[in-house]
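Problem: given the chain below (95 residues), write out its structure.
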Amino acid sequence: MAAWLVERRLTQVSQRLVALRQELAVIDEQLDHFVSDADDQAIRALVSETPGAAFEANDAAKHADAMRRHRAHVVGKIAELEQRQDELLDRLTGG
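Solution.
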């Protein structure tokens, strides 16, 4: 593969990594909020013992779980791109 093509792909991977890391920072903030909200709703459900409060607690827990899955997906993509970046750097340096 030509060096210019490797450099171009390396630039693209690098830009994507920056974007995903920024997205991960936002996800971490949102996840903290969702987990905190789910904990609060669970406590309210225990105290009030009403079906509505239990439903809200369950719903909040589902949101937190969904955000955890999304975070895991983004972390996986970052790992894949870091691996790809390493491969491209090896090609560029002839390693």
